[in-house]
Write a structure and sequence with these properties.
2 copies of one chain form a homodimer. By secondary structure, chain A is of the alpha/beta class. The first copy, chain A, is about 40% helix and about 10% strand. Chain A contains 9 helices and 5 strands, in the order βααβααβαβααβαα. A 5-stranded parallel β-sheet of chain A has the order 2-1-3-4-5, with helices on both faces. In chain A, helix 2 crosses helix 9 and helix 5 packs parallel to helix 7. The radius of gyration of chain A is 20 Å and the shape is elongated. At the A-B interface, helix 2 and strand 2 of A face helix 2 and strand 2 of B. Chains A, B: One of its GO terms (molecular function) is hydrolase activity. Chains A, B: Keywords: Hydrolase. Chains A, B: This is SGNH hydrolase-type esterase domain-containing protein.
């Protein structure tokens, strides 16, 4: 059996998803013997730059199309256009167009299911503190370079793209803020600390179980027989069909 | 750039290596943007059964041969032939022959580096307790089905195979027992709990850094440009060569 692939495509929130408690590691563990989880996270990337990777990350002629692709961008697109992260800013209209192009390309490359993940919430005081620590006190570090209200606009745009393209959307902006003290899930007001990683992992695994039940781990076969089923006397017989 | 692959081939100690703190997740994190870590762990398998997977897991005609393969078997081969795990037992002489065949096949399939990992230590009282909990009190559960002394013989055999084939060997049996209170690294006297997972991860990353310096994360290129190097005005130019 050729094991199916799950591809995690996104920015640093994806790139760092194999840290302790992370959703990448969590998916790999949940789908051991069932699916290969492929990490395609690109720290700092917005959707404009991500589009330039599409043909390489998802070649249309791929021999083994992905069974599931998670598309998790927006945290950098939502950087404000007149502050520290201006370089990364992409207007919300273009963000929507880019997300749509990404989903359409990934489907054209054979992906069976595409799952959109909205950007998570932003804790502004922690961003200010982080920027001040990184760059020193200055007028530019007195105001956050991302805000939670703007993150919400990008999350809403991702949801609209999902609806229009009939792709399921995990609304992480809302899901994380349902947790009391959600600010403590973020290490720098944007990235997940270990508790945040675990919260995202749980949200994603629950979402898959509910919205994509054919992809539940127990709905997917293991590759090769369980060691309990191997014929002790003639083990090769147990592998004839696998 | 086609990202190189690291393949983790082994038994349950490999299959479970994406649990919290695990070496699979740790390698994926350490090699983000640099290498794909592919999990090929088969719980309960000994080397006799693992050999039956070789042509499928490591096809000789593979388009993308592995850059690194870890081969981590022996925990099941070392089950005693006259106790509960008898089904999994493989004599140490055959274990050596099988390991040699695995390394030779993996190299023939194009792997650049093969790293052997010896079985880890066994904490016998915890095995007795585990077996009693799993199967109830009985004469067969009063004695451990694996012993630390026998695990050492398999670890020694793996080291000899590595020397003979000029393959580096991480001696986990010795490395873990160097830690005071090493018994507390195991959940059931055999598998790693979270502290054990972290200890194995550290041992493996240090071993790679020391013995395979060309595979150190900082010696391997990232795929695609850093977001800091993308030309804001003409982003496509930044991807022309990648």
């Amino acid at each position: 059996m050729l094991r199916p692939r799950f591809v995690l495509f996104g920015d640093s929130l994806t790139q760092r998803s194999f840290e302790d408690g992370g959703f990448g590691a969590g998916l790999t563990s949940a789908y051991q013997r069932k699916a290969d989880v492929v990490l395609r996270g690109y720290s700092g990337y917005n959707t404009r730059w991500a589009r330039l990777l599409l043909l390489k990350v998802f070649p249309v002629s791929s021999l083994v199309p992905a069974k599931l692709v998670t598309v998790f961008f927006g945290a950098n697109d939502a950087a404000l256009p007149d502050r520290l992260g201006a370089r990364q800013h992409v207007p919300v209209k273009e963000y929507s167009d880019n997300l749509r192009a990404i989903v359409e390309h990934v489907r054209r490359a054979g992906a069976e299911d595409v799952l959109l993940i909205t950007p998570g919430p932003v804790h502004e005081p922690a961003r200010v503190q982080h920027n001040r620590e990184e760059r020193g006190a200055a007028p530019s570090t007195e105001v956050p370079e991302r805000t939670n209200a703007v993150a919400e606009q990008y999350a809403a745009a991702a949801k609209r793209v999902g609806q229009a393209l009939d792709a399921p959307v995990l609304d992480l902006w809302t899901a994380l803020q349902r947790e009391p003290g959600w600010e403590a899930l973020l290490s720098d007001g944007l990235h997940f600390n270990e508790a945040g990683q675990r919260a995202v992992r749980e949200a994603l695994l629950s979402f898959i179980a509910e919205r994509l039940p054919h992809l539940r781990p127990d709905a997917m076969p293991d590759d090769f027989p369980s060691h309990r089923d191997i014929d002790e006397a003639c083990p090769a017989d147990s592998f004839a069909e696998s």
